[in-house]
Amino acid sequence: MCCSVHIRSVEQLTVHSCVAGCSSAMPYAAGLAPVDRRLQALAGTQGGTFSAAEALAVGLTSAELHRAVGSRELVPVRRRAYVTAVVWAAAAAEERYRLACCAIARTRPDDALSHHAALALLGLPLWGHDPTRVDLVTAVRQGVRRGSTWLHPDEQVDTIVVDGLRVVSPARAIVRTALTMGRDCAVVAGDAALHRRLVTLEELLAEVARVTPHQGRTRALEAVLAMDRKAESVGESRTRLIFVDLGLAHESQVVITGQAGAFVARVDFLVEGVVVEFDGRTKYGRARDEDDGTVADPGQVVWLEKRREDAIRREGHPVERIVWDELARPGLIGARIRRARVQVKRPQADDERPSA
């Protein structure tokens, strides 16, 4: 959910900036002043976020809100938009962006969050986005920027309600994000939305058709055509985009089988005969393939990974592993794959097939 946070220790946490427009460094740590009970009740039903209008409606005064900010009970993320300090301090960077979007949306109940702000509320992953920018559709004739808030014409777009807040449809949010934040940001979110069945390719293409050539229809179409519902993580999405940029032929989530058709492994990518695995740390907290059963011990998972990798190599496929930090060095990844290609022993068509 967009406004929920995972509460952990808030000791020694510092807010260096709220969101654009709140510039002073303000510490929010253990020992905060107690929040007014009326604010507790209001914020408690809204994930820790509320607007000044909502606070006034439950009986607080502007002076009391001002004092609550001064005593560090509240974080003003934008004019007349607040998050309780305890919730804010406990949130990671991406969670803080969601909280800010929620609070800002509460100041504009007739508008709908759009672009990557809508993606945040929809619980989709964000990568390469502007964490200070919030987009909304509203009753304006043409797009206008007010500080770090961007307003877009309503155009009778379809909206849904998430946690009591209006947001544009997943398809609209993804396609419009491609126009403002670029291909990679849109693809990361689009892959996840397709994988979770929040959107279909047909819906995305229909949304692209609503983009004018002047707005960037070609860019939007490029992003949508680069999406893949088989991607299981942000790392896999970014890895695949590197293959696209390098011109490397690839398949996602491929099942490797032996000569007799026996299952060997399901791999993240097969790139011109080379098996490529993206190594996120969470991989080592679970079994790698279904026939490994349920495995909780990381040491055992590492051993299973080695056994699995040996089996893949016996089928003639060299294995390359990519870690997160290497995604910033696509040339290195390409060079490693090209060197590994000479070790491919068997044609792809003989021993692999796409997974169902």
Report on this structure.
- The structure is a single chain.
- By secondary structure, this protein is of the alpha+beta class.
- It contains 14 helices and 16 strands.
- The strands form five sheets. It has a five-stranded mixed β-sheet with strand order 15-14-13-12-16.
- Helix 7 runs antiparallel to helix 8 (183-195) and helix 8 crosses helix 11 (234-246).
- The two termini are 30 Å apart.
Query: Nearest-angstrom radius of gyration?
Result: 24 Å
Mean pLDDT, to the nearest integer, reads: 86
Main sheet strand line-up: 15-14-13-12-16
Q: How many runs of DSSP E, i.e. beta strands?
A: 16
- Please estimate the helix content: 25-40%
N- and C-termini, Cα separation: 30 Å
Secondary-structure element series: EEHEHHEEHHEHEEEEEHHHHHEEEHEHHE
- Total helices: the number is 14
- The helix/strand class is alpha+beta
Question: Would you identify the regions where 5 or more consecutive residues have pLDDT less than 50?
Answer: 1-32, 282-287
Question: What characteristic shape results from the CA principal axes?
Answer: elongated
Residue share in β-strands:
15-25%
Largest sheet: 5 strands, mixed
